[in-house]
Amino acid sequence: MTRRVIIVLIILAIAAAGVVAVAAELVFTPPGPFTPPRMVRIEPGDSLTTAARRLADAGVVRNRWAFVIYAEMTGQANQLKPGVYAFHGGETAPGVLGHLVNGDFVVITVTIPEGLTVYQIGERLEAAGLACAGQFDAAARHGALVKAAGLGPLGAEGFLFPATYKFPPGASVNAILEAMLARFYANLTPAVAARMFALGITERELVTIASIVEKEAKAPGERPVIASVFYNRLRLGMPLQSDPTAQYSPLGEVAPALAAVHHASPFNTYMIPGLPPGPIANPGMSSIAAALYPAHTNYLYFVARNDGTHIFSRSFAEHERAIAEVKRGNAPSRGHSG
Predict the structure, then answer these.
(1) CA neighbours within 13 Å on the CB side: how many for 5?
(2) Same domain, 194 and 268
(3) What is the mean pLDDT of the chain?
(4) pTM (2 d.p.)
(5) Mean per-residue pLDDT, 154-171
(6) At what angle do helices 190-199 and 203-216 cross, to 10 degrees?
């Protein structure tokens, strides 16, 4: 081997060592720290190179190609999970990659209790920083998603399942609606459909009855009994006379019950026969179960005690005595007056 060749090989070895050193620095030297943390969104379907570019643009990794090569070498190139990630800096490329592979993305947790209206859910989402209440309300009532789901002119009221949800920051209104509707329909099993058929009610009628039960019931064990009152009244052609139906408004409950029952509304079951045109809230599974399996009773009336439980009656005379009993206890009465 000539001296010239030996010199060339030495130069190449030194150059290669330099490249390796540079590459190692790009991969294993952490940038940062960052104040505030830098947010990077990895979209569903993003390629590794696209994700690496987003990370590099945010300064989370030192070089996107070094990050790509490292991910490919570790066999994790196709394991990145979409989401919004918060990086505080001080992490090497392996650490950053670990977050993306583990799905350590930022989520906003929001709990939707049973019995909220669409309007109230929108307010809760806005308070959590997830959506503008007005935009959510419009989408839930008239948006393309609810139309595609065949929910009709009244929209998604009643069909947004109460639960605890986790959404990434910046989640779209449609993504939020889709998650809530999906949870509802996941509970609409073939057994539920068979039970609706046996009762002779539609999906909307089921949810409407369940929503009234949800608003009337304070003691969980009374739900099937309250449902039986409404079924008994429907069977006999009696008006439901439910205060929460009179109070319902797409903009929220805006009047006390004593005033609301005298206000004309398509939902006021003191003034309209049968069920209202749609749900008055979004019921939970316990109220849906009560609407599917009401207790077997002859009750036609109930009045609320001060502790939220009810006195149930079979006749108007019994109901009047129950009201008198409640008044003697200095408790405000609420319920069916016949």
Answers:
(1) 2
(2) yes
(3) 89
(4) 0.80
(5) 94
(6) 90
